[in-house]
Amino acid sequence: MSSKEKILRAAIVLFAQKGYSGLSMRQLALAVDLSVAAIYHHFPDKNALYLDAVRFSFSDKEQVFDQIWNSDFTAKEKLHSFIRSLIDVMLNDRDFHRLMQREILEADPERMQLLAQGVFNSQFCLLMQLMTELAPEQDAHLLATSAIGLAKYYIEYQPLLKNLPGWKSEHEIPEFIATHVTTLLLNSFQA
Amino acid sequence: MSSKEKILRAAIVLFAQKGYSGLSMRQLALAVDLSVAAIYHHFPDKNALYLDAVRFSFSDKEQVFDQIWNSDFTAKEKLHSFIRSLIDVMLNDRDFHRLMQREILEADPERMQLLAQGVFNSQFCLLMQLMTELAPEQDAHLLATSAIGLAKYYIEYQPLLKNLPGWKSEHEIPEFIATHVTTLLLNSFQA
DNA sequence: GTCTATATGGCGATAGAC
DNA sequence: GTCTATCGCCATATAGAC
User: Fold this and answer.
1) Strand D and B41 CB separated by under 7 Å
2) Which of A15, A122, A142, B138 has its CA 20 to 30 A from that of B130?
3) Model pTM score
4) How long is the CA B18 to C1' C14 vector, in angstroms?
5) pLDDT tens-digit profile of A104-150?
6) B11: alpha, beta or left, given left = phi > 0 and alpha = psi -120 to 50?
7) Domains and CATH numbers, chain A
8) Which residue of A has its CA nearest to B155?
9) Is residue B142 within 8 angstroms of chain A, CB to CB?
């Protein structure tokens, strides 16, 4: 692996953990066993390195979902699989997820546009299409958003929810959450 | 207003904007027109100041919701009002909301317990009670969580959702979101 | 491409006068 | 309770040798 790629991979993990201003170039250099100057050879400054790292971590998420859209599942099965995969991606790639959370927190309009169009657009369209199939007379954007929002909340807020009354250990099992979210949405369509 | 309170109020705004390591004591001192040393007279160190600021911003949110629980609304009306108020609090007190987001991002187990028990417990119990009333045979914790998750997602992800296909201007109107979330949940109960 | 050495400045925190 | 002055450290970034 090239030094540049090694730097990027470490930067993803460390920026996700510590945030932009929380990670120093010294710490990053230590983590990749290079000098600070060597890093500055590959990237013009800290900000450019950060943006490159974000882009790099976003680059390989699509194929997981494309399998679902290309399958011969029924619409309901596709919804369940999509939500299940979304949960799995969020749980398995915590660094990607935390970087996303940080981006949302900053909410920089320019970067939001970049994220929406460069990363999420195609998957979101496919999800909206599925929602239209399942509930033709409802607002597809609202429903797609609701599906993602429900799944995301259970993952992001799990550390907090564990400390609130009524929590059960099954609430952290991906398949259980996926089934709950899917059922909630499908029930709502029937009414 | 005392210097201590002035410092705390400014700290809430600035920590919400810049995060813990993004805000320096010098910047905070400049904002409140005091010297750095004066701040250290009121707080032992930066971390203690941060925790005090978080606690301070959490202290006055309960009464908004207690009005609802004490009203003579029907259960369905209470659900709608709760979600509507949740949205309003998040939109009107951006600093509180951003501090919350940062806390969730850090996900420090000890602080999650503090937040859950010291801040959210009583409101969450009342919401679960309402859910039990509306859908007695379902998991109240899951439903309460779903309600909060749906509302939160629409607010937090609005800057991103605006850039995705199918977005309409009505999607940012609080009453519209509240109605959508309430309807989704109530429909799901009926099925 | 990577190093050592260093410039320059901001950081958290403290000492001591008023 | 607030100030000025300062300590010691670590930050980003650069210069120049190899």
Assistant:
1) yes
2) A142
3) 0.90
4) 26
5) 998 888 888 888 988 899 999 999 999 999 999 999 999 999 999 99
6) alpha
7) 58-190 (1.10.357.10)
8) A149
9) yes
